[in-house]
């Protein structure tokens, strides 16, 4: 029987919300929408221990359908762009040349990239599993790109289940909520990512080979990853092994013909779910593992070039006038890509630095880092810019400046650790994309489902794992 609840214009009362939240949390536990619980020290290393439901929004967040279509349409364009840019080694090296002077991590990546250029190493089979993230800017009512991720994009596994959860809740409580489950778009990200990995594996035609997932030694988001492992095995008959970078260093070697062998197993696809942050390289061992894999003939998802294309510096370079034109021919497609670019500037631009010091709230200052918690906002932008200017030299090159996007806030119920609370929130939409090609043949170039993340509007950062945001899904509306 339905719980006794009263509603005002589709808004259930507090008791009803509590009841729904309990049901939602139970549903998560029963459907694998779970993460490791910080409170349990073993939850990041021992599977099946210390689970908690993933932080979720109780109901999907609204987005006008036109923006959804726009974001979906952009996915294959960004996939193609990444591939084209990745082939221009000089562009990557030149664009990042100043960054490398001040950023050791970028510098190490560029060293590996340079080695591959010098050896004239060609990646014939190229696999990209990307996610392009957007926010709807309320000032301009336009969808603007936050960033394009080309390495270790998270939540392709869990996001598909959030969509199912929301459809289930709407089906159960729909007439009270005045919502229609059909307006929550389907989300097959996990199946599509698994399929792309399997297809890359297929290109090698080595039955005994495995997909190797590179993971962090401690990973509380492991169930997101295990969803892909499951589909790889069940839908494609492909085995996945999980290794840390230091395990690859200890157990890996490359045969004279280029074959990557780890612990006596042939690896034809390396899928990185680690390796995007300097923290993943505590010693030389991890760097030599990265180099070893890059030197092998295995498909790297991503290759060192694809990884570099996803840096914030390259995002900013691509936004300069006439740069997209170097890589793409189709004028309409170029215009579509450019339409979603926010203002992006290098700190060479003295005028922009000056105006950011004067109006710091209109900018975000970003270092060359991934994974959340690194950006600088508000008055800190002013302070940092003044300090960096004083330091002089190339200190400014470690950062880019970005136009601050102001999404409209709305009320949502967030459920975290079994506790539901209502807050003013903003959302970020990520569209997954898969790209696979073998020489001249494009085998896959698709959008692959979506990730909606919702966070309290007063929080600047957006990471779910970092504890800022919750997983969400989309509710498409007509109005623009
Ligand atoms: P990361 O690599 O850490 O994910 P992002 O560029 O995605 O770096 O920034 C992290 C978060 O900061 C985003 O998820 C978003 O919530 C917020 N953010 C980033 N850029 C902007 C911007 N230009 N305007 C407003 N918020 C932003
Ligand atoms: Mg991000």
Automatic annotation (TrEMBL):
Recorded hits in Pfam families, A to Z, give:
GSH_synth_ATP, GSH_synthase
Q: Which residues form the Glutathione synthase substrate-binding domain?
A: 209-309
Q: How is the cofactor bound?
A: Binds 1 Mg(2+) ion per subunit.
**Where does the chain bind Mg(2+)?**
147, 149, 370
Q: Where does ATP bind?
A: 147, 312, 366-375, 377, 402-405, 428, 455, 461
A GO molecular function annotation here is: glutathione binding
This protein's UniProt keywords: ATP-binding, Chloroplast, Glutathione biosynthesis, Ligase, Magnesium, Metal-binding, Nucleotide-binding, Plastid, Transit peptide
Q: What reaction gets catalysed by this protein? A: gamma-L-glutamyl-L-cysteine + glycine + ATP = glutathione + ADP + phosphate + H(+)
Mention any one GO cellular component term assigned to this protein in its UniProt record: cytosol
Instruction: Provide the protein's localization.
Output: Plastid, Chloroplast
The pathway where this protein functions is: Sulfur metabolism; glutathione biosynthesis; glutathione from L-cysteine and L-glutamate: step 2/2
Q: Which cofactor does it need?
A: Mg(2+)
Binding-site positions, substrate: 131, 151-154, 219-221, 225, 273-276, 453, 464-465
The signal sequence is: none
Catalytic activity, EC: 6.3.2.3
Enzyme class, broadest EC rank: ligase
Q: How does it assemble?
A: Homodimer.
The family line of this record is: Belongs to the eukaryotic GSH synthase family.
Q: Which PANTHER family match?
A: GLUTATHIONE SYNTHETASE
Q: What is this protein called?
A: Glutathione synthetase
Q: Which organism is it from?
A: Aegilops tauschii subsp. strangulata (Goatgrass)
Q: What is the lineage of its organism?
A: Eukaryota, Viridiplantae, Streptophyta, Embryophyta, Tracheophyta
């Amino acid at each position: 029987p339905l719980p006794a609840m009263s509603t005002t214009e589709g808004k259930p009362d507090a008791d009803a919300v509590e009841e729904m939240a309990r049901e939602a949390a139970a549903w998560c536990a029963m459907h694998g929408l779970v993460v490791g619980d910080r409170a349990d020290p073993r939850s990041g290393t021992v599977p099946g221990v210390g689970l908690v439901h993933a932080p979720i929004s109780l109901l999907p967040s609204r987005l006008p359908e036109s923006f959804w279509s726009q974001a979906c349409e952009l996915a294959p364009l960004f996939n193609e762009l990444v591939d084209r840019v990745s082939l221009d080694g000089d562009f990557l090296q030149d664009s990042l040349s100043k960054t490398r002077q001040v950023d050791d991590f970028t510098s190490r990546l560029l060293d590996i990239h340079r080695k591959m250029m010098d050896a004239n190493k060609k990646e014939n089979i190229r696999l990209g599993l990307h996610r392009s993230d957007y926010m709807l800017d309320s000032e301009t009512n336009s969808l603007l790109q936050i960033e394009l991720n080309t390495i270790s994009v998270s939540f392709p596994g869990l996001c598909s289940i959030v969509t199912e959860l929301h459809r289930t809740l709407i089906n159960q409580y729909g007439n009270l909520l005045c919502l229609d489950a059909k307006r929550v778009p389907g989300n097959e990200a996990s199946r599509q990512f698994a399929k792309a990995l399997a297809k890359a594996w297929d290109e090698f035609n080595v039955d005994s080979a495995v997909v190797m997932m590179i993971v962090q030694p401690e990973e509380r988001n492991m169930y997101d990853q295990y969803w892909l492992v499951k589909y790889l095995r069940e839908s494609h008959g492909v085995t996945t092994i999980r290794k840390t970078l230091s395990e690859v260093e200890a157990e890996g070697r490359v045969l004279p013909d280029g074959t990557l062998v780890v612990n006596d197993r042939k690896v034809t696809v390396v899928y990185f779910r680690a390796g995007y942050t300097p923290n993943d390289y505590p010693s030389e061992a991890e760097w030599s593992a990265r180099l070893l894999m890059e030197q092998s003939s295995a498909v790297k998802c991503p290759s060192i070039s694809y990884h570099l294309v996803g840096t914030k510096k390259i995002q900013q370079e691509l936004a300069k006038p006439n740069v997209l034109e170097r890589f793409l021919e189709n004028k309409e497609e170029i215009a579509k890509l450019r339409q979603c670019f926010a203002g992006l500037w290098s700190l060479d631009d003295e005028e922009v630095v000056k105006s950011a010091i004067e109006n710091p709230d209109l900018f975000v200052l970003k270092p060359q880092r991934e994974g959340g918690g690194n950006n600088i906002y508000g008055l800190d932008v002013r302070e940092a810019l003044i300090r960096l200017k004083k330091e002089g030299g190339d200190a400014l090159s470690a950062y880019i400046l970005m136009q601050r996007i102001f999404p409209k806030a709305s009320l949502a119920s967030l459920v975290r650790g079994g506790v539901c609370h209502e807050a003013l929130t903003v959302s970020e939409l990520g569209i997954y994309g898969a790209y696979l090609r073998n020489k001249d043949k494009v085998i896959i170039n698709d959008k692959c489902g979506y990730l909606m993340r919702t966070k309290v509007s007063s929080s600047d950062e957006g990471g779910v794992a970092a504890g800022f945001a919750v997983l969400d899904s989309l509710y498409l509306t007509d109005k623009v």
